[in-house]
Design a protein that fits this description.
The protein is an alpha+beta fold. It has a single domain, classed as Ribosomal Protein S5, domain 2. It is built from four helices and ten strands, in the order ββββαβαββαβββα. It has a five-stranded mixed β-sheet with strand order 1-2-3-5-4. Helix 1 links the parallel strand 4 and strand 5. The longest helix has 40 residues. The structure holds uridine-5'-diphosphate. The site of uridine-5'-diphosphate has 13 residues, from helix 2, helix 3 and strand 8.
Length: 252
């Protein structure tokens, strides 16, 4: 079987801003969000984002185990991000948690916590599982985006949706939603998440170097990208409840 070895492309972006996958600098990859895909979870979502395929399941509020982790005055919010061994495009990933998945679990959890009315559910746990079935750069922001609608699907009281999107730097260009090659060989990657109701930032990480002006432009581009993703999140939730309504009408 041939082994596919990735090579750095000669050029990631042309002078006129055409990216390696043909997108413009401010263009997202194709995104599809489906809500309520797992019957046994309290809430769930499936996100197709470029080549990413991510399944999110939410359970709770339910009794917190182990009991000593329970917080009397608020719900314990726990996230587990996991990349399936077969999910990367090239190498197989060693199964199980590693430093990266532990970090991503924490940042996804921290990005979502501010919108959850935790104080209503003291002593309970809310568990969020983000399972990456196929990875193609930007899995943490796609995971946050999916987890946010899965929380809504679970009926967990939230202040509003959290929406994630990455921006990156490729040569002199600030680009929206870096793809795999741009993430790997570009000059910077900045995953951002917003609480869309207020525009507050709940996640901001960055690698690479940015001037003040580049940083400002990157943040603005991320927000504009999130606005488009936010519309898809809302539509996905509405679609699930419209389907339920139709099914209810047919049952009668
Ligand atoms: N990746 C991989 N193997 C790994 C970790 C990452 O193939 O063990 C790939 C995967 O496609 C991932 C991308 O590298 O989406 C970028 O990873 P990063 O750590 O920047 O997180 P992400 O952009 O997915 O949030």
């Amino acid at each position: 079987m041939p082994i596919f070895v990735e090579k750095k492309p000669d050029k990631l972006i042309s002078e006129d801003g055409t990216r390696i996958d043909g997108r413009k600098p401010d263009e997202l990859r194709p995104i599809e969000i489906k809500v309520g895909v797992l019957e046994r979870a309290d809430g769930s979502a499936y996100v197709k984002w470029g080549g990413n395929r991510i399944l999110v399941a939410v359970y709770g509020p339910r009794a917190a185990h182990p009991r000593h982790q329970a917080i009397p005055h608020e719900a314990l919010v726990r996230c587990r991000y996991d990349m399936a061994p077969f999910s990367p495009s090239t190498d197989r990933k060693k199964p199980g948690p590693d430093r990266r998945s532990i970090e991503l679990s924490t940042v996804i959890e921290e990005a979502l916590k501010p919108v959850i009315f935790k104080e209503m559910f003291g002593g309970t746990a809310i568990d969020i599982f983000v399972e990456v079935l196929r990875s193609d750069a930007g899995t943490r922001v796609a995971g946050i985006t999916g987890a946010s609608v899965a929380l809504a699907d679970a009926g967990i009281p939230i202040r509003g949706l959290v929406t994630g999107c990455s921006v990156g730097k490729v040569g002199d260009f600030i680009v929206l939603d870096p793809g795999h090659e741009e993430d790997m060989w570009g000059d910077g990657d900045m995953p951002v998440a917003f609480f869309m109701e207020t525009g507050e930032i709940t996640l901001l990480q960055a690698d690479g170097q940015y001037t003040y002006d580049e940083f400002q432009r990157a943040l603005k581009l991320a927000y504009n990208g999130c606005k488009q993703v936010y519309e898809l999140q809302k539509r996905a939730i509405i679609e699930k409840y419209e389907k339920l309504k139709l099914e209810g009408e047919t049952d009668e």
